[in-house]
Every structure is written in structure tokens, then in C-alpha cells.
Amino acid sequence: MAKSLHVQSLTKKFGKETALDSAELEVRKGEFVSLLGPSGCGKSTLLRIIAGLDDPSGGRVLMADMDVTANSPASRNIGMVFQSYALFPNMSVSKNIQFALKPQKLSLKTRKDKADRILDIVGLTEFANRMPQQLSGGQQQRVALARALVIEPDFLLLDEPLSALDANVRHQLQFEIRRIHEEFGMTTIMVTHDQDEALTMSDRVAVMKKGRIIQMDTPQRIYRHPADAFIASFIGTSNQVKSNGEVKVVRPEHFRVTDVGEGMETKVQSMHFKGAFYRLTVTVLDRTSPSFNHLWTVDLPALLVEEKRIHQGMSLYLSIQETKTMPVMKVAAR
Questions:
Q1: What average pLDDT does this structure show over 211-235?
Q2: Which domains does the chain have, with CATH numbers?
Q3: What's the DSSP call for residue 319?
Q4: For position 88, what pLDDT does the model report?
Q5: Residue 327 — very low, low, confident or very high, per pLDDT cuts 50/70/90?
């Protein structure tokens, strides 16, 4: 049964280092939330404290409005998946999963039946009797996920579960994990430093920096309305443009090619084919623009680039779709 989670003023110190600085987090019942941030921002520390694997220096962890800060990991009914998988090499796939059920003192038949059901859900029925070393990385991660799910947890905690996998397998498992989350309906919290992963999989994203959550919102609002310049640069690719006393975020896809003499004149410095679009780096040549001589990243549809024969070294006139700009900070007066 899914439960809500509330982290209140959570602090964690390691000697003189502060890993968490009065962090606040609220996760709704049945929600999928990603903790996203650069290395050292405190996201894994926060997850470990939620799991009961580390003690906080201050603050509280509430599950379904009950204070569990001092409770053991076993009493929190949490399923956890680590980056390292942590499978037992001397046990078959089925026995790895059944091992998670041992504390429940179920009969062997019940444990096997539960393991078989979970194996079917994660698509590994035919691998039940294989050993972990006989599986691919993606298959091993599915076993780790199945072992976390078989106990029917209130919370599923994922600590960078896909970071060791190649791109194709990672992309496939993103959708698999999301499908399983929706099928089981448990509250899920995932740690990741991969912005695409967070935007693809989450109901909401909590962006962390220096031990604090600095913005928490839907993927769409995080991307379109970043709270500050750090988030604008960390989530997706962005250009920062000074205009009317503000720094505005302009995403690469928010530029439009105009006729010669209209918009701002730029020079194409480089071009990279991305399939459906080209990513251009351009230098602003317009001396009247606050962005004169700045480099911008511009995404243009591949068909448009090829139709207009846009190439490296040419002049290109661009306009910004003003409705797509996002002010993120005031420029200090001088």
C-alpha cells in the first residue's frame, strides 16, 4: 500500500562537511519523484536517510504522517534498488528474489509463487533458474528490481539504478520501471544525475544543490520555468540572454530563422546532425544586442537546415520567440 513521505528540516553532517542543509521534501502517496542534482549535492545521502540506512544529524522523516526517524530500515517496508544490483552470485534468479521474503516466514511454495509472479511482471520468467553471472546488465537490474518489489513495499527507492547500463538498455528500462510503478502504485523515489532520465520518468523532479532542494515541480515546469540560472543550465541546454534588466533563458528550440536584415545577425560556427534536427553554435554579430559576440546554441529542424542550405561559416538571421523566454534572475545594477 502506497504511503506519503515528508522530510522536515533534514540535516546531515560528516565532520565539518554538511551533506544536507535543512532539506525539505514532500512526496505524495503513489507519486514518482526524482532527486536530481550534480555529484555531491546530497541526493544519495537523503535517500539513505529515508531508507533508514543513515541517521540524520537533525530533522525528521515522516511516513504516512508517522515519525520514523529512529526506526530501523526493516520496519519501514521499503524496497531498494542499488546501482551495484547487489545480487547473490551463488543463488539462482528465483532464489535471489525469494531471499527477500525470508523475514516474512512464508512457506517455500508461497515464496516461489510470489517470485514467479514478479518474474513474469519484469519479463524474466524463462531466466528463473539462471545464475546472475549468466545474465546481461539489464537483466541483472530487472532481478534487483523484482527482489525489491516482491515484498510489496510501501516505498520503492532507486539509487541511480540505470547508470551502469548502456544507452539502449537504459532507455528501455526507463519505460519498464515507469510501467511497473504505475502497475504497483507504490510511492517511488529515484536518485539520478541524468536529467533526461528524471524528465522522462518522474511525476515531479526535486532539483538539489549543496544539500538543499532548490526547486520541486513537474518535469514540464522545471524545464520551462527554472527557478534560477543554475537550474536553467543544469536542466537541458539553455542560452542566457540579458534583456531589460533581467537574464532570460532561451532554449535552443526557441529560435526562428528570419529573412536577411530581420532579427539578429549571427555567424554559424559549427553544426552537428542529431537526426530530426541540427544543433548549431552561432556567434551573435549584432552590435546593438547585449549578446554581441556571445555564443548561442540553436536547434533547427533538419529539413529546414537542408532546404535553406545552412552551412558552417555563413551568416544567419535569427529571432527569439519572446513567448518562449523565461526570466530567471535580475541583473545587478552597476
A1: 92
A2: 5-229 (3.40.50.300), 241-330 (2.40.50.140)
A3: E
A4: 94
A5: low
Q: Where are the alpha helices (DSSP H) in the chain?
A: 43-51, 93-99, 108-121, 137-149, 167-184, 195-201, 219-224, 229-234, 302-307
Amino acid at 143: V
The pTM (predicted TM-score) of the whole model is 0.87
pLDDT at 332 over 60: no
The three grid cell numbers given for residue 98, joined into one nine-digit string = 525469494
- Which pLDDT tens digit goes with each residue over 244-261? 777 788 899 999 999 998
Strands 187-192 and 295-301, sheet pairing? unpaired
Contact 4, 30 (CB under 8 A): no
Rounded mean pLDDT of the chain? 92
Closest listed residue to residue 29, CA positions, set 222, 158, 188: 188
Q: Which residues contact 101 (CB under 8 A, 6 or more apart)?
A: 110, 111, 114, 115, 150, 151
- 173 vs 165: CA distance, rounded Å: 10
| Rounded distance between C-alpha atoms, residue 207 and residue 36, angstroms | 5
52: Cα separation from own chain's centroid:
22
| pLDDT tens, position by position, 47-66 | 999 999 999 999 999 999 99
Side by side, the strands of the sheet bearing 326-330 are 239-243, 246-250, 326-330
Instruction: Answer whether 68's CB lies under 8 Å from 62's CB.
Output: yes
Rounded distance, CA 130 to CA 134, Å? 6
